[in-house]
Amino acid sequence: MKAIIPLAGKGTRLRPHTLDTPKPLIRVGGKPVMSYILDDLIELGVEEIVFVVGYLREVVEEFIGREYPQIKAHYVVQEVQDGTAGAVRLAKPHVDEEVLILFVDTLFDADLSLAHNLPPDWAGVIWAKEVEDYQRFGVIVTGEDGSMTRIVEKPSEPVSRLANIGLYYIREWELLFEGIEDVVRGSAGPGGEYYLTDAFQYMVDKGARLKTAPVGGWYDCGKLDTLLETNHHLLQTTRGGISSEANLVDVTKEGALRIEAGASVRGASIGPNVTLERDVVVENAVLQNCIVGRGTTIRGCDLHDSMIGVDSRVEGMKGRVNVGGYTEIVGKR
Asked: Engineering a disulfide at 103: which of 29, 95, 166, 255 sits with its beta carbon 3.0 to 4.6 angstroms away?
């Protein structure tokens, strides 16, 4: 089994952090978003992945080559942002067997081993999450057997509450690419984009059965507010803890935290939901619901719901800040 991971977007909702860091490499819970996905794929036994790159492609390729040398990686460039179908279409020369397709705007708790155990009468799996605010999503309408019949984008009526989360396994990969070609021959949607979900509809209309499968959790990493929520989930489950190599003096701690090796915290109140990466310095400060990148210094601040990039300095600030890497911001003394 191979995998396709589209990565070409600019991540504008996470600026300024994505000005020099591709969105998939933004860190949450002390780890790049994409690493959670890649680690799951490696555990599943996937060895070959097609990465659809574009914005800051050199950074992505260098990271994968350095951190995941065991992956046989192919890179294809999406020069024009023409949608999800357009992105996956570029991977076709490298696909000759069943395939997983994963979009890395989100993290998920999903049983990917279903791809190995799917009965032969199914053409693939679309993972979905039941939501209350169905109007915000593309939702999957299913038949009595749990198969997809159609996907409706942002419905005004509750035709379904199963949100499409961007995680797919396709056994009948040739029919998928046939569907993609049919989609791109038609009219583009808003913004000149072609949608992968229309290719799934083509498959269904040709008689393929796509199974819907639930996920236990679905965590958005595409904008600051939801990234902080995802950080909170990770700290409460698998990524929390205080390194024995961190130096804490006169510190009040509350709730789930991640404080990494080399961090120095003095005279501070930290938490809940705070990640301090390696070599961060915090002095005389209050931090709640914050992610602070490695090597950054924070002094005399009272911050909440904030994200601060690597090797920055923030002093004398109160409230909420969103600061990229290699930045200095100093408030009134």
From this structure: 166
